[in-house]
Amino acid sequence: MKDHRAELLQRIADRSARIGVIGLGYVGLPLALLFEEAGFTVTGFDVDAAKTAALQRGESYIRHIGGERVARAFARGRIRATTDFDLLRQCDAVIICVPTPLGSHREPDLSYVRATADQVADRLRVGQLVVLESTTYPGTTREELLPRFAAVGLASGQDFFLAFSPEREDPGNQSFQTQNIPKIVGGLDPASQQVAVALYSAAVAKVVPVSSPEVAEAAKLLENIFRSVNIALANEMKLVLERMGIDVWEVIEAAKTKPFGFMAFYPGPGLGGHCIPLDPFYLSWKAAEHGVWARFIELAGEVNTSMPHHVVDRTARALNRHGKSVKGSQVLVLGLSYKADIDDDRESPSFEIIERLQAAGADVTYCDPYIPVARPGREHDLRLASVACTAEEFARHDVLVVSTAHSDFKDKRLYSGVKAVVDTRNLMAPLGLVAPGASGPEVCRA
Ligand SMILES: NC(=O)c1ccc[n+]([C@@H]2O[C@H](COP(=O)([O-])OP(=O)(O)OC[C@H]3O[C@@H](n4cnc5c(N)ncnc54)[C@H](O)[C@@H]3O)[C@@H](O)[C@H]2O)c1
To answer: DSSP letters along 158-173, please?
Structure first.
């Protein structure tokens, strides 16, 4: 009998294994490039023909994944991007990086994972390794992928291999990228574990094997829940200390000097990005199936989702102090992306802040050098384009709301003619604009 495991291990070792990456977004694209750079032949799959066409032309559609890197990789000829899923048959390893959003009732939406698993199952052949990277609740790999693949008549751990390995991408992080972020790998069985560990070890600096896909799935959720809960705590501290007239930012800086047992998290206008606002609810949903209520997750969600409302309230107060009502006032929101210096606007709280202010009758515009035009999404369609990042433009408005601390906004001269700023990111203090007696706009922290 043919030893498919040994054969695949050999192909990984000599780099003749062909890698398929499904879903060429923020996670899949850098991963595909990484395997190409490690010497493998890579095929990237996506349902979005505009993306695959751009990549084939050597262009990047994600700003922090440089066009040069994409152009260089595609010029070498070892990587291609396609919408033709029949090419999956040629791949020895298939890595799934498709979206895992929430449905309208905050329930996991596994439709992308299921559709992709069906595409893979239709082409599954002996000797293939399939790894799911999409963030999801514990049990997804075993409950959703395995039955689809087993139905083909192949045996896992023998004919094909299956694992879960969570992505830990931090877009825009200069110190940690796909290659040097340790990679957790949980195989369904010892053979799957061995080949999946071998595959990632060929491309990333450190692989952390765990005993099952469920441990790997849960570890990813713990990481994101940890962030969500601690951000909620920082937000709650902000609300409490604000009432007491104490500056939460100064408090955090002071607490941060403790060399052990404390990790700084910061308040903000609400959660953003594809992970932290969504992933925790994957666990609370699954927990309910087991009769347990994940109360920390729900409470953190409640605190964090109330933040845009708080920001709007502070904006109304700031306008009021200048004798203006929200209705009819000119409001400029600084930053549409969910975090500084990246072009990702998914789940950004700026959308809700803008929509709430618009609903109250304000004339709202935004400024974001990373997002020249607000793209319509599943939940929002602002139909706005960014105004220029200039002092003249800023001065035209009654109030500025700092939602994202882009580096472009860290220039004191921009605020010379501004009347009021609602600052959710502590952007103004380092510019010397909140010190007692400082000239410039009235700054309200929110
Ligand atoms: N963005 C991050 O920083 C990050 C970090 C860790 C984990 N994750 C997780 O990784 C997964 C992917 O996230 P992302 O940020 O890369 O999403 P993304 O939206 O940037 O990319 C997903 C890609 O998949 C494509 N796609 C959708 N359905 C498909 C299908 N059926 N077949 C092939 N392609 C399909 C989309 O066109 C898109 O290009 C999610 O589960 C997410 O939670 C994301």
So the answer is: TTBEEEE------TT-
Antiparallel, parallel or unpaired: β 18-22 and 41-45: parallel
Q: Which atom of ligand 1 is nearest to the CA of 48?
A: 37
Could you tell me the two tokens for 55? Answer: 């990549």
Q: Decide if 282 contacts 135 (C-beta within 8 A).
A: yes
- d(CA 59, CA 115) in angstroms, rounded, equals 27
CA pair distance 261, 204, nearest whole angstrom: 29
CA distance linking residue 326 with residue 312, whole number of Å: 9
Nearest to 301 by CA among 273, 274, 270: 270
Which residues, in sequence order, are CB contacts of 302 under 8 Å at separation 6+? none
**Whole-structure pTM value:** 0.92
Question: ∠ at Cα 201 (213, 77), nearest 5°?
Answer: 110
* H helical segments located in 322-361: 349-359
Q: In degrees rounded to 5, what are phi and psi of residue 380? A: -130, 145
Question: Which has the closest alpha carbon to 125: 96, 100, 99, 93?
Answer: 93
Retrieve residue 191's tokens: 């053979």
Give per-residue pLDDT as tens, 9-48.
999 999 999 999 999 999 999 999 999 999 999 999 999 9
CA angle, 127 then 149 then 12, to 5°: 25
Residue of 27, 61, 84, 346 with the most ligand 1 atoms within 8 Å of its CB, for mutation: 27
Strand-pair category, 183-187 with 161-164: antiparallel
Please answer whether residues 203 and 34 qualify as being in contact, where contact means their C-beta atoms are separated by less than 8 angstroms: yes
- Is residue 367 annotated as part of the catalytic site, yes or no? no
* Residue 94 CB–ligand 1 contact under 6 Å: no
What percent of the chain is helix, strand and coil (3-state, nearest 5)? 40, 15, 45
In 348-433, where does DSSP find H-type helix? 349-359, 391-395
Q: Which of 97, 123, 217, 227 to mutate to test ligand 1, by most ligand atoms within 8 A of the CB atom?
A: 97
Residue 162: closest CA among 205, 123, 133, 202: 133
- pLDDT tens digits along 80-133: 999 999 999 999 999 999 999 999 888 999 999 999 999 999 999 999 999 999
Q: What is the pLDDT of residues 221-251, one digit of tens each?
A: 999 999 999 999 999 999 999 999 999 999 9
